[in-house]
Specification:
- Helix content is about 40%, strand content about 20%.
- The protein is of the alpha/beta class.
- The chain has a single domain (about 5-144), classed as 3-Layer(aba) Sandwich (Rossmann fold).
- It has a 5-stranded parallel sheet with strand order 2-1-5-6-7, with helices on both faces. A two-stranded antiparallel sheet has the order 3-4.
Length: about 140
């Protein structure tokens, strides 16, 4: 978990990011972080049952409603909700390919859920901001 090479590989090779817990409120991190990633070229698949559209994309009520597995599932939910998200990812993995990359945002930690995900073959980045890590990657690539 959180290995620099894993973070680099996820960001360098991903094209779609499902954002669980995205908000319509542009002041909230789930919104502006997702907007940044969208502007950086990633397709954002919003997941929030209370919202119909965010950032010009249709919003889905759950991961299971997404049209295809995303490259990364990025989570902006409280730690107590992470186990259910991991369970849903594991169930979806059994029904088809993908669902093998989980990113849990900065300040959100659930070690038991991360261990369960990793035991099921899901790569995990936890307690890291995807925006900050993407900016580091861009800086690294610019220096080369």
């Amino acid at each position: 978990m959180n290995e620099p090479q894993l973070i680099h590989d996820l960001l360098a090779h991903a094209r779609t990011i499902a954002v669980v817990g995205i908000s319509e409120d542009a002041r909230k991190p789930s919104h502006y972080v997702s907007r940044y990633m969208q502007q950086a070229g990633y397709r954002i698949l919003p997941v929030n049952p209370s919202v119909t559209e965010v950032l010009g994309e249709r919003c889905y009520a759950s991961l299971s409603e997404l049209p295809a597995p995303p490259d990364i599932v990025n989570v902006f939910r409280l730690p107590k909700f992470i186990p259910a998200i991991v369970d849903e990812m594991m169930a979806l993995r059994h029904s088809g390919g993908g669902w093998d990359r989980l990113w849990v945002q900065l300040g959100i930690v659930n070690e038991a859920a991360a261990a369960q995900a990793e035991a099921a073959g899901i790569q995990v980045v936890m307690n890291r901001c995807i925006l900050v890590e993407h900016q580091k990657l861009v800086q690294e690539l610019t220096r080369k």
